[in-house]
Amino acid sequence: MDKYIFELKMKVRDYECDLQGIVNNANYQHYIEHTRHEFLLNHGISFAKLHEQGTDAVVARLNMQFKTPLKSGDEFVSKLWLKKEGVKYIFMQDIFRLPDMKIVIKAQVDTVCLVHGRLSESEELDAAFSPFWAAD
Q: Would you say residue 1 lies in a domain?
């Protein structure tokens, strides 16, 4: 069963590669972060607006498993699905190389919200995300 609820196509830029000619590991974090931000924007959620209201969504933990390297010019698709555990919003994110759909990375990003500086649930995020929460 395909749990993915959002996907974003991207292309590797030359400056994202290291001397070995493959994408530097730190850039994968940029790719998955950009995917999460686009997912939020796609659902009418703005980080700036949340911050102005006193809510800051932050990464609490990140785990990435590297499977296949990307090279300059490679096109890829970044996909995500979402679940919730307590106060954590957990983004399960995978990147696939195009066109062969070979898995590039598997990532789990645990995020939490600080509401007026205190660890708390976000009513706005709960309302926006609840239709997408996957059951284990």
A: no
